[in-house]
Write a structure and sequence with these properties.
heterodimer, A: 254 residues, alpha/beta, 2 domains, 6-stranded mixed β-sheet, 9 helices, B: 249 residues, mainly alpha, 8 helices, 0% strand
C-alpha cells in the first residue's frame, strides 16, 4: 500500500499539486487520471521519489520516503518496477540484456538462473524467443511488454506505469491493460497507473484518482464512473459526442 | 552568466561525492570500465597518431628554420622536439583533442540517456546513476589517457625525426644525439601528472554537461558543445597552473 499525504508541489510560482491525499491499495490497479497538465506525471514522479514534494509525504507501507536518505531510497527502489511512457529500454542492449539488467546489478544468481528468470518474464508477457533482438527490431506494443517484463523481473512489491497505452492501437492497449491487471492480482502488488485512456479506466480502474488542476476532483471505482454526477469527471470521460451518446444509452437501458 | 557559473560550480562539487560512492556491483562497473577504456583508447588512437605525427614534424621544421644561421648546435633539434613533446605538446594536444572527440560523445551519450528516461529508469531500479555512468568513464580515462599521451609523445618524436632528417636536412646522428642530451626525468612525471589531471577534467566536465541536460535535441547539442568548450578551457587553465607549480619547485 502507498499513501500520499497532503502532497503539494510548486515550480517557482506555479502550484502544480494542491494537497493531494490518496491511498493506493495493495492488490488493486490504482489509476491516476486527468487531463494533460493536471499534474499526473508530477504526482507519479513524487510517488516514486524522482521529485521531492514541496510539502506533504509519501508512505510505502510504513516507510516515509521523503525522510529517508538516498541509500535507503535506493534499497526501497529495488522493490519498485516501473514502465515508462517511452519504455526506456536501453537501445544498445538486447531484449535479454535489458530484462536482465536489474538482476545483473543487484543479484548474485548464476547466468543460467538469470536466463531462466528472463525467459519466465518473457513468457509472462507472451514474447518468448525474442531474447536476442534489439529494441529497435520489435514493435511499439512489444516494447511495452518488454518494459513490463523488465519491471517485474525482480518481483517488485510496487509497480508504476506511466501512460502504458500511449501510442498503441486499442486491441494492443487492452492486452497491455489485461497483462498489468493479471500481474497485479497474481503477485498481490500495489500497481499505480498514470493514464488518460478511457478504455483502461473502464476495464481495470479499481481505485481511481481523478486529478483536475492539481486537485483530486473525484475518486472511486470504475463501476461508479457511469452513474456519478461530477461535472468535471463527466466532461473528462465523455469528452466526445460518441461517448456521450453511449453513456445516455447505457443509462436509459438501466 | 557569473551567477550561472557559480551555480554550476556548486552543483558540480556537490555531485562529485555521488560519483565516488560504493558500486552496487563491482563486476558491472568493471565491465563498463573495460568498454570505456576500449572506446577512449582504441577509438582515439588514429586521431592521436595523426595529430602527434604532424605536431612533431611541424615542431622540427619550425625550429630547424629558427636554428639555421645561429650558433646553436644542430643536434639541439632532437632535444627541442623531445622536450616540447614531453613537457607540453603530447599531453595538452592529446587531451584537447580528446575533449573534443571523447568529451562530446560522452556528453551526448549521457544526455541522450537522460532525455530517453534511461537514467530515470536506472534510478528507479535503485542504481546510483551518477556512479554507474560516470565512475567507469573516469577510471578508464585515468588509466588510458596517460597511455595515449605516451604514444603521442613517441609518435611526435618520430614525426620530428622524420621531418628533421628528410625535410630540414639534419643527420640521423645529430637528431639522435639531441634526443639523448639533457634528459630531465621530472618532465616525464610532469607529462603524466598533466595527462591524469586533464583526463579527469575532460571526463567530469563532459559527463556533468550530459547528466544535467534538460530540454530537447537543441539543448543536447548545446550541452555537447559546452562539454568541449569548458573542457578545453579548464584543461588550458590546469596546464598553466601545473606549469607554474612545477617550474617554481
Amino acid at each position: 500500500m502507498i499513501i500520499a499525504k497532503d502532497i503539494t508541489k510548486s515550480f517557482d510560482i506555479q502550484e502544480v499539486l494542491k494537497g493531494i491525499s490518496f491511498t493506493f491499495e495493495k492488490g488493486k490497479t490504482n489509476l491516476i487520471i486527468g487531463k494533460s497538465g493536471a499534474g499526473k506525471t508530477v504526482l507519479l514522479k513524487i510517488l516514486v521519489g524522482l521529485l521531492q514534494p514541496s510539502t506533504g509525504t509519501v508512505y510505502y507501507d510504513d516507510i516515509d520516503i521523503c525522510s529517508i536518505n538516498k541509500q535507503q531510497l535506493r534499497e526501497l527502489r529495488m522493490q519498485i518496477g516501473m514502465l515508462f511512457q517511452g519504455n526506456a529500454l536501453f537501445d544498445s542492449m538486447t531484449i535479454e540484456e535489458n530484462i536482465r539488467f536489474p538482476m545483473d546489478m543487484f543479484t548474485k544468481e548464476s547466468i543460467q538462473e538469470k536466463r531462466n528468470r528472463v525467459n519466465y518474464c518473457l513468457e509472462r508477457v507472451s514474447l518468448e524467443g525474442i531474447n536476442n533482438k534489439y529494441p529497435s527490431e520489435i514493435s511499439g506494443g512489444m516494447q511495452k511488454r518488454v518494459g513490463i517484463a523488465r519491471s517485474i523481473v525482480l518481483s517488485p512489491k510496487y509497480l508504476f506505469c506511466d501512460e502504458p497505452n500511449s501510442g498503441l492501437d486499442p486491441k494492443t492497449a487492452i492486452t497491455i491493460d489485461e497483462l498489468i491487471s493479471s500481474i497485479t492480482k497474481d503477485n498481490e502488488i500495489t500497481t499505480i497507473i498514470n493514464t488518460h485512456d478511457m478504455n483502461s479506466v473502464m476495464e481495470i480502474g479499481e481505485n481511481i484518482c481523478f486529478l483536475d488542476q492539481g486537485e483530486i476532483a473525484w475518486q472511486g471505482h470504475k463501476d461508479e464512473v457511469l452513474e456519478n454526477e461530477n461535472p468535471k469527471l463527466q466532461e473528462f470521460i465523455f469528452a466526445s459526442p460518441f461517448l456521450q451518446k453511449l453513456r445516455s444509452r447505457a443509462l436509459n437501458a438501466g | 552568466m557569473q551567477k550561472t557559473l557559480i551555480h554550476d560550480l556548486g552543483k558540480f562539487i556537490n555531485w562529485l561525492p555521488q560519483i565516488f560512492s560504493r558500486p552496487e556491483n563491482t563486476k558491472m562497473y568493471y565491465k563498463e570500465t573495460i568498454r570505456q577504456m576500449y572506446d577512449i583508447g582504441i577509438g582515439s588512437l588514429p586521431i592521436v597518431f595523426i595529430i602527434s605525427l604532424f605536431i612533431g614534424a611541424v615542431t622540427a621544421i619550425q625550429f630547424s628554420y629558427q636554428l639555421s644561421g645561429t650558433l646553436i648546435p644542430p643536434y639541439y633539434i632532437g632535444y627541442i622536439v623531445r622536450d616540447m613533446m614531453i613537457i607540453e605538446l603530447s599531453s595538452t594536444f592529446t587531451c584537447l583533442v580528446l575533449a573534443g572527440k571523447v568529451g562530446s560523445t560522452m556528453a551526448a551519450e549521457i544526455g541522450g540517456m537522460r532525455q530517453k528516461e534511461h537514467i530515470d529508469a536506472m534510478e528507479i531500479m535503485g542504481v546510483n546513476t551518477s556512479a554507474y555512468l560516470v565512475m567507469p568513464k573516469i577510471i578508464a580515462a585515468l588509466l588510458i589517457v596517460p597511455v595515449l599521451v605516451t604514444v603521442s609523445a613517441l609518435i611526435g618524436i618520430g614525426g620530428g625525426y622524420f621531418a628533421a632528417v628528410n625535410v630540414s636536412g639534419f643527420s640521423d646522428a645529430e637528431f639522435t644525439r639531441g634526443l639523448r642530451s639533457f634528459f630531465v626525468p621530472l618532465y616525464v612525471n610532469m607529462m603524466y601528472i598533466k595527462s591524469i589531471v586533464f583526463a579527469f577534467i575532460l571526463v567530469t566536465v563532459a559527463c556533468y554537461q550530459g547528466y544535467f541536460v534538460t530540454g530537447g535535441s537543441v539543448e543536447l547539442g548545446k550541452a555537447s558543445t559546452r562539454a568541449v568548450v569548458f573542457g578545453d578551457i579548464l584543461i588550458l587553465v590546469a596546464d598553466l597552473l601545473i606549469a607554474v607549480v612545477f617550474m617554481a619547485s
